[in-house]
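== Sequence, structure tokens ==
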Amino acid sequence: MSKNRHIPRKAASGLFAAAFFSAWLCDPLLYQPPQKATDCEIEIVAHRGDSFRFPENTMAAFRGAADAGADYAELDVRQTEDGVLVVMHDSNLLRTAGVNREICDITYDELRSLKVKERGVLWPGRETIPTLQEVLRFLKESSLMLEIELKPCRGDSCEKEVVNLILNANLQNRCLIASSDCGILRRVKGYAPELKTVYVGCDFKSCLLQMQCADAISLKEHCVDASVVQLSHAAGKPIYVWTIDTKQMMDKVIALGVDGVITDNPALAVQRTYFVEKQPAV
């Protein structure tokens, strides 16, 4: 009996700890990440925003990325049935909004009524799927920059509209355009040669073949070693590495001398810039 009397107290303690941890993650007054080391040249790119603390590709995640000290927020753009550019990685809404429909087959008004879920649970802040224009407006109010990954759309109107939004907002110096489709990057350059582009590849061999269509390359972590960094830099191409979420992986790629770390946890990446000495790629 005496043992059982302690169960409610233990449960209450567990709930309190969980509530405090949740508040620490989400409340900027409690959550105070360090600033990036002043001598660090590596750019921290928050993958789909601060997706460690918030639902990916939401305004909360982008605000979180800025608060965490990231240099860039990475996001994905798709187009609704009625042509509105929205921020979403998947082509289907099932994983992030619980609705089994393709974005290209749904109108923006329908999309706007949906609430974002995190691991199948409705997010307490009731976040919605933002438009690219909303994110660009936020960009003007922050020091954050954007890496915008373009997914294939019906026709070429998506790419041209993205470029137009960036140019109209006068944000061409604060946006990178990324894609795994070289045709998309070439068309972007045709619309706005001043925009910097990034080719996203899963192996260095594919990046070597596509280097001419982009100003920089972005590779999966397991493909990157000192020789890859050296070859990329010899070709005049900055190299970004994804998706880096552990201390060990961060320390490894920072030491290799990569130009950017793409991570779900930008605060951790900012912290690691203090502890890792960059080694020359040989």
